Every structure is written in C-alpha cells, then in structure tokens.
C-alpha cells in the first residue's frame, strides 16, 4: 500500500511537469476557434487505449514510469501502455483533433478543451465486472459510461443542451475492450474460477451477450458512429508465448478463444445495425491486423514480432516492463512494446488499416469512408 502511494505521488509530480511544459500549447487551444471544427472523439475501454486515467487511481495496472513513453515527444511516461502513441492517439490525429482527448480524470480537462472529447478508458478492465479484480481500483465499463453522462452534463452547462446533443451525435467513438476477459480472467492462471464454471464456447456467448447490452447503453447516450475493435491475436502476444506457447508458436488455446469471439462480435454488431436501421457500429478486425505483422514481420519493417521490446524472461514476456527490464534500442523494429501491448509502430500499422483497409479489416466500412460520408450530411 505504501509503495502504491509512493508511485501515486510520483505520478502526480510527473503530471505537473508535463502540464507546465504544455502550458503554452494550452494557451493556443483557448484562442483558436478552429479547435471546435474537428468532430469530438470519445474513447472507452482498456489499456490498449487508456491514455492516463489509471495515473489517478490506486491500481497496479499503470504505465506511468520509465521506460513507458520513451519515444513520445517529452520522452516521459503519460500512462499510455506504449513506447509512444496508442491507437486512440493516432485515430485522433487522422480525424484532425487538435490534440488527443484528455483522460477524463485529468484535472486539465476543463472549459472548451472538453469540446475535443474525452478518454474514459482504464487499463485492466473487461466487458465483465469481475475481469481485472486483481488490479483493484479501475474504471469498469459501467463507470466509464456513467462518467460519459457526467461529461455530457458538463458540456451542456458550457454550450447549452442543443449544441451538446449535436456534439455527441456528430462525434466519433472508439471502444476497445474484451481482451482482458480472456487473458486477465478466463486464462488467468492454470485454472480460473470462470474456466471451471463455463466451457469456452459458453463463456464466449456470455461475454458477447454482456457486450451487446453495454453497446446498446452506449448508443442510448447519443453517439451515432462507434468503432468497435475485436480482440488482437491474444495467443501470440509475448506474455502468452512465455507461458502457453504451443510448439514455439502462438498459444493454440488462447487463439481458439479469439477465433470463437471475433466472428460472434462481428455478427452481433451487424445485428445491432440491422435493428437500428443504420450503420452505427463499425466492426474492426484487429485480430487479422495483428496476424498480418505477426506472420510476416519483415513486410512491415519489424525484425521481431515475438519478443517484447521491454520485459524479461522468455520472449521478454514475464512480469511487467520496468526500469530494470531488458529494453531494445530501436522500438520501431519490434511489433510488441511490452508483454501485451503493440509498439507505436505497430499501432500506426493498425490504424492505417482501420482508416483505409478493405472489408476484410473494416465492416461495413473503413474510417476514411465514414469521415467522407459524415462530412456531407
Ligand atoms: C455490472 O455492474 C453494473 C453496475 O455496477 C451492473 O448494473 C451490472 O448488472 C453488472 N453486470 C453483471 C453481469 O453483473
Ligand atoms: C477504404 O478506404 C479506401 C480509401 O482510403 C477506399 O478506396 C476503399 O474503397 C475503402 N474500402 C471499404 C471497404 O470501404
């Protein structure tokens, strides 16, 4: 506990340093009216898209110390689980945001900066409430949605009800969650409570049915374009290779989970769009995007798609990435930054496919098509 508190105050001082540096930049946001021109962007989910909420929480799921953020402009950790940017950051660049939406818990998310959007994601969470209980205090999905409602009340106070409603309706949402329901729940340890309770196919159906409720609750809060990512190649991440590799390759069992889950997610999203009579939910096939560079790393400029850049043990896949870990000198050559998270370079490849990939990657359409469609209506 004492150690957690120490980390917590350290992260606060890091935040202070970061914001002093950014003060001049903040000044330009307040002056520039075009700050409102780009559509608002909202982010929900887990560590793949958390950009610092967990810095403000008492949790072991955090990325606020060296060497996280080593390749960011400040070279300082921000709470992102990456050497630099994550996919939410890169999407915000693609859609022309002046800056990535701030973590919702950041004290700097105030005034007109709220109009850029907000990031509610929290490392360690899953679709199910019991996923990630080992990380203590994290923002589970029902809390992320409750904060989104609170955010809307704050924006209404700022620009009025009608304008706030329009801002939400015209926004873009990214939701990335589900991986932890497998790697940090069903497959946590040799025999988890969930795996003793349900065989995999029934567990997958249960997770999908809970996700469907969650997505409908999100839709009811107003957004009309929601990017939903499937799970990555969970059985191929260094953390799983270290503990469950099958004949030196990906864990067949964990890959089986993704092979069941991802197509059912895709079908569920199609079903929701049909019910709503419009293409609200966009299904992103991140599992395939990951497999592309895992199976053929050299085609993407990687020398390594199995060993994490930062970590220790087999595949650098055991334990956390800390200042004591092995650290690769050139992060751009590694598909994985730590045991579970892609490098910034891999994240750029993923967003490239989300933006302009074919129907194999993005269904029913890619982000560039969404942006073109929505700009004319
Ligand atoms: C998860 O928690 C929320 C709020 O605490 C609750 O409304 C919901 O029913 C829970 N879900 C399950 C499956 O228990
Ligand atoms: C995706 O985006 C590209 C443009 O970047 C476009 O040519 C293509 O048709 C789109 N594909 C789909 C399936 O929407």
TrEMBL record:
Keywords: Hydrolase, Lipid degradation, Lipid metabolism. It comes from the Eukaryota. InterPro entries: GDSL, GDSL_Est/Lipase, SGNH_hydro_sf, SGNH_plant_lipase-like. GO terms for biological process: lipid catabolic process. Its EC number is 3.1.1.3. One of its GO terms (molecular function) is triacylglycerol lipase activity. Belongs to the 'GDSL' lipolytic enzyme family. PANTHER family: GDSL LIPASE/ACYLHYDROLASE FAMILY PROTEIN (AFU_ORTHOLOGUE AFUA_4G14700), GDSL-LIKE LIPASE_ACYLHYDROLASE. This is Putative triacylglycerol lipase.
């Amino acid at each position: 506990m004492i150690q957690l508190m120490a980390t917590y105050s350290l992260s606060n001082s890091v935040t202070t340093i970061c914001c002093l540096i950014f003060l001049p930049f903040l000044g330009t946001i307040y002056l520039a009216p075009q700050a409102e021109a780009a559509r608002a962007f909202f982010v929900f989910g887990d560590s793949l898209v958390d950009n610092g909420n967990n810095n403000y929480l008492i949790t072991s799921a955090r990325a606020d110390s060296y060497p996280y953020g080593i390749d960011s402009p400040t070279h300082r950790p921000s709470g992102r689980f990456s050497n630099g940017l994550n996919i939410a950051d890169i999407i915000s660049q693609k859609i022309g945001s002046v800056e990535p939406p701030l973590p919702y818990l950041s004290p700097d998310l105030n005034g007109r900066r709220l109009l850029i959007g907000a990031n509610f994601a929290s490392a360690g969470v899953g679709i199910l409430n019991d996923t990630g209980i080992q990380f203590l205090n994290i923002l589970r999905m029902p809390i992320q949605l409750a904060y989104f409602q609170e955010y809307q009340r704050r924006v209404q106070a700022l620009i009025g009800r009608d304008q706030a409603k329009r801002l939400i309706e015209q926004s873009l949402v990214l939701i990335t969650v589900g991986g932890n329901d497998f790697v940090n729940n069903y497959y946590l340890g040799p025999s988890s409570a969930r795996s003793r309770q349900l065989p995999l196919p029934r567990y997958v159906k249960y997770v999908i049915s809970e996700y469907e409720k969650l997505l409908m609750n999100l839709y009811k809060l107003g957004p009309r374009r929601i990017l939903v990512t499937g799970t990555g190649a969970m059985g191929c991440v260094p953390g799983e290779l270290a503990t469950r590799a099958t004949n030196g390759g990906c864990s067949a069992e964990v890959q089986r989970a993704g092979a069941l889950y991802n197509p059912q997610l895709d079908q569920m999203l199609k079903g929701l769009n049909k019910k709503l009579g419009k293409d609200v939910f966009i299904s992103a096939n991140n599992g395939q995007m990951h497999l592309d560079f895992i199976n053929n790393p050299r085609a993407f400029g990687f020398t390594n798609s199995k060993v994490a850049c930062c970590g220790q043990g087999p595949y650098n896949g055991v334990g956390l990435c800390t200042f004591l870990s092995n650290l690769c000198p050139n992060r751009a050559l590694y598909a994985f930054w730590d045991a579970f998270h892609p490098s910034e370079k891999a994240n750029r490849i993923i967003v490239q496919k989300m933006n302009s990939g074919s129907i194999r990657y993005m269904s029913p359409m890619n982000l560039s098509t969404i942006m073109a469609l929505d700009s004319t209506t």
